[in-house]
Amino acid sequence: MTVTLKTLRKDEIEPVLPQLARLRISVFRDWPYLYDGSLDYEEKYLARYAKTPGAVIVGAFDDDVLIGAATGAPLDTELVEFRKPFTGHGLLPVEIFYLAESVLEPAYRGRGIGHGFFEAREAHARALGYQRAAFCAVLRPATHPARAAGYRPLDPFWTKRG
Ligand SMILES: CC(C)(COP(=O)(O)OP(=O)(O)OC[C@H]1O[C@@H](n2cnc3c(N)ncnc32)[C@H](O)[C@@H]1OP(=O)(O)O)[C@@H](O)C(=O)NCCC(=O)NCCS
Hints:
5 strands, alpha+beta, binds coenzyme A, 5-stranded mixed beta sheet, Aminopeptidase
């Protein structure tokens, strides 16, 4: 299988939103997210990326089919819930690029696409003049009954990338 990563900006974002909404719902249904999303909500949530200056979606395409994507936007354009933990610690959202989410269909994992998502978003952020990026992760107790057997946390991957 040949997968191509493409950095999508403003006008290129809108056409992929329905595919990205479906992908988010199916990937984030799993542990540790356990997220019960609806297409209507997802499309509204994601529509912000098409309208936000500096936002980016990196799409992973197998031919024309979107099989993965990663999003990002200047932190000062993000929802207050995302900004608050930074302002609460004296960090200025205007200086930070927020690496929002990465989703990839399970069949395509473990081939370096996740690294490609970070590299492409970091390159986009650097081109806009940012020197710092941040993201958040979902924390759940290790004893949670819905924890999938054999789940490998992504912390080593994130730590290795700095
Ligand atoms: C996060 C995600 C996009 C990573 O994509 P990926 O293409 O599989 O990642 P890569 O192949 O680039 O591998 C990244 C690292 O994770 C490790 N990894 C690979 N498969 C893994 C797995 N099943 N579980 C945990 N880590 C794995 C790799 O060993 C690699 O580490 P390395 O650099 O030390 O070799 C993908 O796992 C995913 O969609 N997960 C579900 C959604 C999610 O958790 N998103 C992140 C938060 S929004």
